[in-house]
Amino acid sequence: MIKVSAYYPYTEGVKFDFIYYTNSHIPLCKSRLGCSKVEVSKGISDTNPNDPPMYVATADMYFDNVEEVHEGFKAHGRELFTDMPNYTDIKPLFIIAEVLD
User: Measured at the alpha carbon of residue 72, what is the angle toward residues 67 and 76, in degrees to the nearest 5?
Assistant: First the structure.
């Protein structure tokens, strides 16, 4: 199994619209990329509860194989990245990883 993770780093004053992200962008990703499952997390704090989270949000998308990932992003990446200003001004960090059991 392959997992594509997107990390949205926190900095003071960043914009992130969770309603748009979960109701519009994530369904768009699922339909275009064909991932089997998506998990979205909203950062609450760092390990010190008085400090902001390292990431405003993270998303994990699961695929059967890495070829699906690359083909999906080749075909639909531009559309997905063009949608980003609708929910955030953060430049996300990505990792494509193999899930080990």
Answer: 160
Give the model confidence (pLDDT) of 33-47 as tens digits. 999 999 999 999 999
Residues sharing a CB contact under 8 Å with residue 34, sequence separation 6 or more, in sequence order: 63, 68, 72
pTM: 0.92
The dotted CATH code for 2-98 is 3.30.70.100
In 3D, which of 85, 75, 39, 78 has the Cα closest to residue 60?
39
**47, 14 in Cβ contact below 8 A?**
no
DSSP the chain: -EEEEEEEE--TT--B-HHHIIIIIHHHHHHHH--SEEEEEE----SSTTSPPSEEEEEEEEES-HHHHHHHHHHHHHHHHHHGGGTBS---EEEEEEPP-
